[in-house]
Amino acid sequence: MNLPIASLAGSETANATTAPGGRVRHFYRAYGLVVSSEVALPELEPAAPATPDLEIAVGPLDFPDGASQGATAFRFKPTRQYLSWQAVGTFMISGGKRIAVDPAPGVDDPLLAFPLLGPVMALALHQRGLLVLHASAIAVGGRSVIFMGDKGAGKSTTAGAMIGAGHRLLTDDVVALDLSDPERPMILPGFPQLKLAADAAGAIRLEQAEVRPQVHPQIDKAQHRLHAGFAAEAVPVSRIYMLERGGRAAISPLTGAAALPAIIKFSYIARFGRQALPGDFAAAHLHQCAQVAGRVGVSRLEVPAGLVRIGEAVAAIETDLASGTR
Predict the structure, then answer these.
(1) Are 89 and 114 in contact (CB under 8 A)?
(2) Can you say whether residue 297 is alpha, beta or left, with left for phi > 0 and alpha for psi between -120 and 50 degrees?
(3) What's the pTM?
(4) What gap in Å lies between CA 149 and CA 210, rounded to an integer?
(5) How crowded is the C-beta side of 203, counted as CA atoms within 13 Å?
(6) Domain 131-323 class in CATH
(7) From residue 146, how far is each of 18, 136, 222, 238 by CA, in Å?
(8) Residues in CB range of 152: below 8 A, 6 or more apart
(9) Distance CA 23, CA 57 (A)
C-alpha cells in the first residue's frame, strides 16, 4: 500500500517549534533519544517538543585544517568529529549531543538526511557510548537478530524478507547496542525505514509501506517508510549473523576466536580507520566488541543466491531462534 507523503507531513507540524533565526525545529524519537532537528527528517518518528537529547542545527561551519581538496574529508578529534561531502555538505558532531549541518549550495533536506541518518548519526551514537554496528536488526517476538555483512551480502533484503514473514524491523543500516548491562545487550529501535534495491522490493512486496521519492540519481536503493512492522521498544540481542552467499540456507556458529574480529570489522567506527578512535576510545571500543562477542557470539548465515529462495534463509533463522541454544 502506497501512502501519500502528506500523511506524514501533517503529523510533523504538530511536533515542531520555531528555532532562533526562524528555522522550523522538528522533534523526533530515534534510538531511545528525543531529537530536535532544523533539518526535516520525516523518516523518523515524530515526538512532542521536549528537552532534546540530541540537537541538529543548521549553520556555517569551518572545516579544520583547511578546505577539503577531495569529494570527501573526515577529521576526528577527542570531542568533535567532522565529516564533509563536497556534493552534500559538512557535518560536525559535538560530544554526542549536537550535530551542526552546513549544507552545500542547493542541497535540500531529503539529500542531507542520507548522511545525517547514516554515518553522522552512527558517530553521534558512538560518542554517546553505544556500540554501533553497520548492520540491520529484526525483532522476532521478544527476541532479535542482527544481520552483518559486506556490501551486497543482503542485509536489508534479508531484513525485508523477515518483515514480510510477519516479524518487525528494529533498525536498518545503523544498529545501536546499549551495553549498560553487559549481561543483556539491548538493540535500541531506530526508525521505521528500510532501504531496498528495486529487484528486492519487487520480490518482497512489503505491505503498509510508502516508497519515498529518489533524492539523487546515484542512490540505487529506494527508501521504504514502514507504517506497520516496526518495533518501537528495545529488545535484547539474541543472534548475530554474518551473511555470506551460499548454495543453500545454512547457519554455523563461528569459533570464539573468530567472533571478535567479525564484530570489530562490522562496527560502524571501523569504516573510518584508526583515526576515528583517538585516546581511550580504542580501548573502550575493543572492550565493547569483546563483550558482545563473548555474550552473544556470531554465526555465519549462508543466504542462497536468487531472491526466489530468500524464504529458505528466513526459515533457517526462525528454526535457529526456536532452538533456544547457542
Answers:
(1) no
(2) left
(3) 0.91
(4) 26
(5) 18
(6) alpha beta
(7) 38, 6, 21, 8
(8) none
(9) 9
List the one residue out of 147, 127, 128 whose CA is nearest residue 137. 147
- What tens digit of pLDDT does each residue of 23-78 get? 899 999 999 999 999 999 999 999 999 999 999 999 999 888 655 556 889 999 88
CA dihedral 302, 303, 304, 308 (to 10 degrees): 160
Q: Which amino acid type is present at position 247? A: G
C-alpha grid cell, residue 262: 567479525
pLDDT tens digit string along 72-109?
899 998 889 999 999 999 999 999 999 999 999 999 99
For the chain, give every domain's residue range: 6-127, 131-323
Q: Cα–Cα distances in Å, from 11 out to 5, 95, 232?
A: 11, 30, 17
Q: For position 266, what pLDDT does the model report?
A: 97
What Rg value do the Cα atoms of the chain yield, rounded? 19
CB 30 within 8 A of CB 191: yes
Give the residue among 305, 319, 175 at the shortest CA–CA distance from 240.
Answer: 175
DSSP per-residue letters across 85-151: ETTTEEEEEETTTEEEEEEPTT--HHHHHHHIIIIIHHHHHHHTT-EEEEEEEEEETTEEEEEE-ST
